[in-house]
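New to this. Help decode both lines:
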Amino acid sequence: MGKHHKNISTDNQELCRKLLESPRSLPKNTLSEYGLFEHTLESILARNKARIIRDIRQLIVPSAEILAVRGARHLKILRETTNTTWSTIIPFYGLSPQLSYGLGFEREAFTREQLQKLDPSLEITWRISSDGLHGLLL
């Protein structure tokens, strides 16, 4: 990526200058914390969309599962998935959706009462998919 000086308004240049010069703290447990942001930007130049999303997302929002491993106990109920097809649905148009990134809850995240509030007339069962995520089957 290079520096770009054309067609940038003076107001936008000033805003960028203020943001760059203002004190800030780096997010913890991300590549930014270790001073690798510019290296990461250079490394994604020739990458595909999935790889770019994987690398940049972690700069912005650290992995919930990794944070849970590092001690954020309240995040242990979450599970992440990438590039997963929703194979248990019947699409009404086109192919089944395929998520670039998904974040879901484990079954244990819900009480029986919370599950009943979803819709008491539905029979709710849970299963473990091939990627380890729990899913609602209605």
Remarks:
- The longest helix spans residues 10-21.
- The two ends are 47 Å apart (CA to CA).
